[in-house]
Amino acid sequence: xAYLELHNIEKSFGNAVVVDNFELLVEEGEFVSxxxxxxxxxxxxxxxxxxxxxxxxxxxxxxxxxVTGIPPNQRNVGMVFQSYALFPNMTVGKNVGFGLxxxxxxxxxxxxxxxxxxxLIKMTDLEHRYPYQLSGGQQQRVALARALALRPKVLLLDExxxxxxxxxxxxxxAEIRSIQQxxxxxAIYVTHDQEEALSLSDRVVxxxxxxxxxxxxxFEIYNFPQTSFVANFVGTLNxxxxxxxxxxxxxxxxxxxxxxxxxxxxxRVKGDxxxxxxxxxxxxxxxxxxxxxxxxxxxxxxxxLGSVVRIQVKIGDAKFNMDTFNNxxxxxxxxxxxxxxxxxxxxxxxxxx
Amino acid sequence: MKRFRFWSWFWLAIGxxxxxxxxxxxxxxxxxxxxxxxxxxAYQRVLDDSQFVSSFLFSLRMALLTITFGILLIVPTAYxxxxxxxxxxxxxxxxxxxxxxxxxxxxxxxxxxxYSSPPFLMTTTPATTDILLVAGYMVISLxxxxxxxxxxxxxxxxxxxxxxxxxxxxxxxxxxxxxxxxNLRTAALTGSLLTLAIVIGELTLAQYLARPAFxxxxxxLGQNRAYEPAALAIMSFxxxxxxxxxxxxxxxxxxxxxGGGH
Lengths: 353, 262
Prior knowledge:
Structural class of chain A: alpha+beta
Shape of chain B: globular
Strand order of the largest sheet of chain A: 6-7-8-3-9-10
Structural class of chain B: mainly alpha
Largest interface: A-B, 36 and 25 residues
Number of strands of chain A: 20
Oligomer: heterodimer
Distance between the termini of chain B: 35 Å
Largest sheet of chain A: 6 strands, mixed
Number of helices of chain B: 13
Order of helices and strands of chain B: HHHHHHHHHHHHH
Number of strands of chain B: 0
Order of helices and strands of chain A: EEEHEEEHHHEHEHEEHHEEEEEEEEEE
Helix content of chain A: 10-25%
Radius of gyration of chain A: 25 Å
Strand content of chain B: under 5%
Number of helices of chain A: 8
């Protein structure tokens, strides 16, 4: 039995189905991210766990107990909002202690828990400040402390870093992960930022149009996307049309150029049209002699991206991006040069629709 | 630049003259009670009149009751409309504007007609008539109080604050009285001040319900005396400004809290 269970969740607003057949089991202490574009149903799913929305059908279980019909103020689920949602009329200390006060904890216990939480977010000296006297990053840390003060069963974070600038976003996400691991709390994190999801999570749930596309570790999601949507949404990708040449030998062709894949071609026959994908960093110039997946190419464009240089090559009529680390001591090819690129057969992914 | 500055001052002066000249004239006139000299005789006569104090205190009491019940009615209503029924907002706004369209005389005759005979007989005792009076005041102050509260609610993220409080275990009462209302302090005080000003000067409702309010007292004084009504006008103007000063003092720094900062 998992710690948090979502069974066959469906949510409709009028005729519009925003979450459909959502099935997920989350273990205790796990950090799971819902990743997807705007309107894919990730926030609605989170709100159903919090109790702010009621599923049209399906059930939510926390610690073995069904909570589907229980109001949000009785679920003991902590929530952090994109807009911080700190109470403007209360100081930092009062905000953090609010939940404990509502639940009539003893004053001494409230004071000690507030102190403990402020130490956790390293803001003990700002206890008497009002929210308007804090920066965005500080406000969000207070919101996190406030949600954690009640020792909730599940911590829900709804795009908590979206309103912050890039630098604070990176440092705060590391802080969130570190606090989550320290407390061993089960966390569900909603984001449309793939970097956030991949860097924070034990598992990522990629969603599209109300459905789960793929559930897996960040490594699995990035390296072995199972659908075109996941492959395109997570990371940069070269997705091109190809044709099955020999399903038994796992050979495919792009404009007559032969490639070998490690993916299964079961159920396909010669001549079937498929879509294959290769990550830019899996392509390399041929430096040693190789027998398979050596592709003649022409350099089309070179873009400097800082630590990475993105080189666009043309293979047949298809264009591929290739990423190499920036090395100032190596000479880059020139636009129009003829060269050869290669990749392992494992890098050639055959995508489902 | 210089030309621009001249016209700015010009229009400001015109505005000031338009506003202050009648006030200065009234003030000057109110001090002419003693022949051939400027004095505060009219003010002294007004303050010496026991009816002035009693009618003012009566209206103040009615105003406080109107404000209390008005806030208790309007804050939860406006909050619920913002949170759960945003599509009904235009309808509620229309309802709150009705007192501008329906004259007070119509309202008071309607009230007298309904509540002066069984089964809702309420005009027979002062206490029950005062209930009617407060209810009437609530209706005529509705556009001002609702608008103030509505503006206050628009300035805060009602939904997120409510959900944050809910996720921390708060029920509706706690959310309303410890989160929403304290953050509506400025808006509620502004609405209360407007309500106070309306109730203190209101004539028709109190007159037709035969209650000893400040409005009918002022009207009566205006019919029988010359200088005292002018003195009363200046005094009520000063009282209103004093009340505004109190509101400003009570809510200093609060706007920044609600607005937030980064």
